[in-house]
Structure formats: C-alpha cells, structure tokens
Specification:
The chain is an alpha+beta fold. It is built from six helices and seven strands. Among the domains are: 59 residues, no CATH class; 56 residues, Arc Repressor Mutant, subunit A. Helix 4 packs across helix 5 and helix 5 packs across helix 6. The radius of gyration is 28 Å and the shape is elongated.
Length: 168
C-alpha cells in the first residue's frame, strides 16, 4: 500500500509505503504522525502513487505550462570563475596559464588506468614488462601499472597465462 501525503507546514507532497508511525517531510524535514497526515490517494503500486503525485504537482502550476528556458536570465547570477578562484586563494592567472600549457603538444587525456587497459588491447601478447613499457611512454609510473594489473586480475577483468595478459 502506497499513500500520497502532504505536509501541513510546507505543502510538499511525498509517497509513503505502508503505514509507519511517523513520516518525515522531504522538504522541511518535519516529522509527522502518519495517522494525522492527509492521504490524498492510496494505491497498490509505487508507480501508480508516483503518477498521482505527479498529476497533483502539475495541477498546482499556475498556468500548467513549463517555463521557457530562454526566458530565464542567468547573466549576473552567481560568481564567475575568476571571482571564485580568487576567493579560494588561487591565482586565476596561474590557472589560466596552466590551462594553456595543458593544451600544448599531444598529451593524452586518458586516465592512468585507461592507459594500462589500452596497452593490454594494443600490444600483441602483452607481458607485464610490455605493458609497463607502453604505460611508461604515456607517463604512467611502473608501480601503478603493476598494482593495476594485479587489481584487474583479481577483479576478473584480465587473465594471465604464462606471463601473458589478456582482457576478458
């Protein structure tokens, strides 16, 4: 049994399963005795209760229309990146310079784990030494490669036979 109930304080609607002694409003966090809550609808399935709640919320809208996102003016709302970084004690110019440097060259945006996984796929009969060499060329430390290969093996994502790794 699912009930659509409403809060007397903030008028929020929520769904309660069964008949608990108390229920807490998800909006204002006030605890209500379930027996004193007004049950707007009672259904046998959670889906039906969700549909009832949705239709009740839709009826509450003034004109029943959705707000056009283009009509909302978001300029000037909140703080910009420079202001945020300055307030956090970070030099915005240094961040900008670091961003410019990261765009230089052919640096990969792959994670270290993805480099290891790519090595397993791209190399023919990859041994641990082969994967370490492949990953080292991408700037991944040898210790990380060894730990990752072991974790992948224990998790069942790769197998090792005669020293050769293979993705499953």
């Amino acid at each position: 049994m699912y009930s659509v109930v409403g809060c007397r304080e903030c008028h929020a609607l929520w769904i309660v399963e069964g008949r608990p002694e108390t229920s807490r409003c998800p909006r204002c966090r006030r605890t209500h005795q379930f027996s004193k809550l007004r049950a707007f609808a009672e259904t046998d399935s959670s889906g039906a209760a969700a549909r009832v709640r949705s239709s009740m919320l839709a009826e509450r809208a003034d004109d029943g229309e959705f707000v056009d996102p283009e009509s909302i003016d978001v300029d000037g709302v909140g703080i910009d990146d420079v202001e945020y970084l300055s307030a956090s004690g970070i030099d915005p110019e240094a961040v900008s310079a670091a961003g410019d440097r990261s765009g230089d060259g052919n640096r990969s945006t792959r994670s270290r784990k993805q480099v290891v996984l790519d090595g397993l796929v791209e190399l023919d009969e990859p041994t641990e030494a082969d994967v370490v060499g492949y990953a080292s060329a991408a700037g991944v430390p040898e210790s990380y490669v060894e730990r990752t290969l072991e974790k992948l093996r224990r998790a069942g994502e790769v197998t090792r036979t005669d020293g050769v790794y293979r993705r499953l």
